[in-house]
Specification:
Shape: elongated
Number of helices: 6
Order of helices and strands: EHEHEEHEEHEHHEE
CATH architecture: Alpha-Beta Complex
Structural class: alpha+beta
Helix content: 25-40%
Radius of gyration: 18 Å
Low-confidence stretches: 213-218
Protein name: Nucleoside triphosphate pyrophosphatase
Largest sheet: 7 strands, mixed
Function: Nucleoside triphosphate pyrophosphatase. May have a dual role in cell division arrest and in preventing the incorporation of modified nucleotides into cellular nucleic acids.
Organism: Micromonospora sediminimaris
Active site: 79
Number of strands: 9
EC number: 3.6.1.9
Amino acid sequence: MLDALPLRLVLASASPARRKSLQSAGIEPDVLVSGVDESLVVTERAEDLCLELARLKAQAVLGRLRPTDDERTLVLGCDSVLAFDGEILGKPDNEADATWRWERMRGRSGVLHSGHCLVDIVAGRRAEAVASTVVHFADISDHEIATYVATGEPLAVAGAFTIDGLGGPFVERIEGDPGTVVGLSLPLLRNLLAELDLRITDLWTKVAPGNQIVDPLG
């Protein structure tokens, strides 16, 4: 019976980059922001922190959903942190914090960890894992740091940088899946779906040139 139900994916994240990653891969998620207070979780390991926050985000959204007989709802919680120089770095507190971080990070490298927690509400099952990618930062100038921080972009993202936005030129290379740095690893999502006996192609939608959804793919 479950196999016959249409799938609905709910993304428990306010991140437009995560939503865009899914859309680019043919998946149109519903979005419900979890509202989880990330400061409440304290741990010494970046991998543990991002996974626990991903769990909490998924759980918070689960509490606002009710299963129905006509669809199979999946909830995806994600969270990202940067492990750098023995510290765990989430979003900067303010511009001064973002500037201080970049003054330390430039010319060096860190590891971006993204936790993923996928819950199948109807089946009552969960799959979760962490994706990790090494990020090598360019040795950027004080002027570049000040100009970048002034845009406000570093204040909204873990580690104070992006690779899919204004921060892209300041990342020289990465070792791993680029999606991990964006905050959602599509290969990992495929593996998590497989653990729940699902295929990522089950979530594909056919999209017309104007980006409007036409109908689900079979």
